User: Which sequence fits this backbone?
């Protein structure tokens, strides 16, 4: 007989102090993407102490733990947690503040890893009461391309045993602790990085006959891109009229002066959408815009598109199962339906391979002033969310079996 929600909650409460200590250690000792050596060693130690077998060394720091219940060949469910931190100097005044200056768990990956470990402890303790196999994937490098998930897939994380379903959570500071959110189908956008270099001809600003100003050319390119893709109504009556699209540039650098025209301008931006054929079409259109305007001014320009994560899609059947299970575990009023997001997540690589459910864990608490967003220097969580997260992750896994 499958363990009850009450039993899962009892174990989550039992493991809370241990998982909170784990989160504090991880938060105090953050490491940047693909440099998570000490984080990996610490997680391996926790798994060893719990008697949970694992294989380390995926993409150097990645870990895959394996918990077998009765009849382990019945099916395999993957739980995923990321481990990397961000290059941010923490401004919180808390006992577990980052000890690594300029590095901080500002996106909650310490929470993700702690919750996954907590879920592993619970599932391992109950392994004689459920059927199947659970893989727990601790991955490096979610924050930077090409994304640790894609690299671990390349190294076989979805095989041996073959993964049938996958589940992951992500902190959500705008949602109160004790709550969770789900979105069936398309949920998060693909993401590509755009790097544009416009070559002109530098010179003295007082002698316009002698130079070709790359700032003007770059501005025209940006305005045309904005007009084509971002102005209200720009995509009406096109193949993308119902496809969420963002093309935005956040950096422009022309190393001139008040009276110095530079030789070149460098620009960086992002492109996000939720359709692969449209994604390819926009890539072509961006190159055409850059080529056309550069040709008009008789200069050379280069647009480099670094293709990043694909769009994230939640399997409808699995997400419906998880949503209903979450309502049974938390209470129906504690579960929200989420809107589409134009942010990106490398768990998307997994959702493209196996039926998956990526959900949001409420971590905020307005009464306590815990309201800062992710990727900020004051991000923190209401730590009661750890108990909710580990228990819900374990419960969803069992209900998805």
Assistant:
């Amino acid at each position: 007989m499958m363990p009850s929600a009450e039993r899962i909650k009892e174990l989550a409460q039992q493991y809370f102090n241990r998982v909170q200590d784990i989160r504090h250690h991880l938060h105090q000792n953050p490491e940047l993407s693909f440099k998570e050596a000490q984080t990996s060693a610490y997680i391996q130690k926790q798994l060893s102490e719990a008697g949970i077998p694992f294989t380390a060394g995926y993409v150097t720091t990645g870990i895959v733990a394996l918990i077998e219940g009765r009849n382990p060949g019945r099916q395999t469910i993957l739980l995923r947690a990321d481990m990397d931190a961000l290059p941010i100097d923490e401004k919180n005044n808390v006992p577990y503040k980052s000890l690594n200056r300029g590095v901080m768990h500002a996106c909650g990956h310490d929470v993700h890893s702690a919750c996954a470990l907590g879920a592993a402890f619970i599932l391992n303790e109950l392994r004689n009461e459920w059927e199947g196999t659970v893989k727990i994937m601790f991955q490096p490098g979610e924050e930077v391309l090409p994304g640790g998930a894609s690299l671990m897939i390349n190294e076989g994380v979805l095989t041996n045993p073959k993964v049938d379903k996958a589940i992951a959570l992500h902190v959500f500071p705008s949602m109160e602790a004790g709550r969770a959110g789900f979105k069936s189908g398309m949920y998060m956008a693909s993401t590509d990085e755009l790097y544009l270099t416009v070559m002109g001809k530098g010179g003295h600003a007082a002698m316009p006959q002698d130079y070709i100003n790359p700032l003007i050319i770059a501005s025209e390119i940006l305005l045309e891109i904005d007009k084509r893709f971002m102005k209200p109504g720009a995509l009406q009556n096109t193949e993308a009229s119902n496809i969420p699209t963002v093309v935005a540039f956040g950096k422009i650098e022309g190393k001139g002066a008040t009276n110095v025209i530079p030789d070149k301008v460098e620009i960086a931006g992002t492109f996000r959408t939720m359709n692969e054929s449209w994604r390819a079409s926009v890539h072509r259109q961006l190159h055409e815009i850059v080529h056309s305007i550069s040709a008009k001014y008789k200069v050379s320009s280069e647009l480099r598109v670094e293709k990043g994560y694909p769009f994230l899609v939640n399997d409808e059947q699995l997400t419906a199962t998880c949503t209903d299970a979450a309502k049974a575990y938390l209470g129906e009023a504690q579960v929200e339906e989420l809107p589409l997001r134009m942010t990106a997540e490398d768990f998307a690589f997994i959702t493209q391979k196996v039926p998956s459910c990526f959900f949001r864990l409420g971590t905020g608490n307005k009464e306590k002033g815990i309201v800062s967003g992710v990727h900020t220097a004051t991000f923190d969580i209401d730590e009661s969310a750890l108990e909710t997260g580990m228990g819900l992750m374990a419960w969803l896994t069992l209900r998805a079996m």
Q: What stands out?
A: The first strand starts at residue 54 and ends at 58.
